[in-house]
């Protein structure tokens, strides 16, 4: 019969277990929510506020009425004359070529505001008209302010249409611009702190009670660092049924390589190869995933050759990705948080960090160009698509696990323990 001391000891054990479990269960939710808030704020600042509510400013000192020259008709005429002049200059090997704006002069005028000041005019142009991009040939970031300055230098210092002695141009700067990285970081960290404090308060009030009872066995492991874990993974190479299934999934991977969707970030694209890749890792483990990663990249190059040639760095990326999908999904309790963590690793380490290194080597970027590419192009793209990719992975893996358990490819206990957290 239990006495009061035994009951108190059991209660303390349960509370200690709950304290450990709350971290395991809700930290993924906190991290996922924080990244979602970061991406949301980044999107609002970069694509809503900065594009529509920040402006490049130029000051024009002139005694003439600016509207007589700075209007849609005159700017279109100037653009036509510049195009014609540059064409003849190239034919005659003339190095004196005017800068061609990245957008039409008519578009610049439509997004302009003219303000009269004492000694002339201020021209404000919406920053979305001169977007910041990276030149893939050099790795150099082409700033919107640089494009704006060059364009307006041409408009007011080119004598193809006006007497430039009557106009004095100077670049003032950009107004209303907010740093999306800084603001997103501050807001997301504040949100994370508030979320953690909320869970701690609910836990202290006994509003959150979590019990979990999963033990290591031959069907499901709490950790991959178990003596039998990798033995099970390598055993799939000896099973004919497993080899046939792996071959079918491998063929699906190669077929998915043909589907590439635009991401909106330069030459970086999106594909669905990772879904079949993760399924292989879930069913057959990290060693099979590593092997499939090697063959998928090598054979994929011959089927879909790249203009840049074969580069072994991307083979390493595929191998490490396949290995990690196995670590996250093979013979373990499956959840959305693991889908998220697997994509977090692939997106940040493989795609952003390693991918930027390989791209810099291929294009002979210096260190500054590497940093520019990583933080301006690669990092935003991989953060923005992180949550949608992990959600899609969760949506695909759960029914895959059910089908696999029905055909005895996966143990039923793995599917039964499939949860969101």
Question: How is the topology of this model organized?
Answer:
Blueprint: H1 4-53, E1 55-61, H2 72-91, H3 105-110, E2 112-117, E3 120-126, E4 133-134, E5 141-142, H4 144-157, E6 168-175, H5 180-204, H6 229-235, H7 240-256, E7 261-265, E8 268-270, H8 273-303, H9 312-329, H10 336-363, H11 367-384, H12 386-406, H13 412-416
Antiparallel strand pairs: 1-3, 1-6, 2-3, 4-5, 7-8
Descriptive report:
It is a single chain. The protein has 421 residues and is an alpha+beta fold. 62% of the residues lie in helices and 10% in strands. It has helices at residues 4-53, 72-91, 105-110, 144-157, 180-204, 229-235, 240-256, 273-303, 312-329, 336-363, 367-384, 386-406, 412-416; strands spanning 55-61, 112-117, 120-126, 133-134, 141-142, 168-175, 261-265, 268-270. The strands form three sheets. The chain has a four-stranded antiparallel sheet. The longest helix is centred in the N-terminal third of the chain and has 50 residues, at 4-53. The radius of gyration is 29 Å and the shape is elongated.
Which features characterize this protein?
8 strands, alpha+beta, 421 residues, single chain, two-stranded antiparallel ribbon, elongated
In brief, what are we looking at here?
The chain contains 13 helices and 8 strands. It is of the alpha+beta class and about 425 residues long. Helix 1 packs antiparallel against helix 5.
Biggest sheet, open or closed, and with what strands and sense?
A: 4 strands, antiparallel
Beta content: 5-15%
In N-to-C order, the SSE pattern is HEHHEEEEHEHHHEEHHHHHH
Q: Radius of gyration over alpha carbons? A: 29 Å
Q: Give the end-to-end Cα distance, rounded to a whole number of Å.
A: 37 Å
Extended strand count: 8
Sheet with most strands: strand arrangement: 2-3-1-6
Put simply, the count of helices is 13
Derived from helix and strand composition plus strand pairing, the structural class reads alpha+beta
- Average pLDDT, all residues: 82
Residue runs with pLDDT of under 50 for 5 or more positions: 4-18
Helix content: 55-70%
| Shape, per Cα inertia axes | elongated
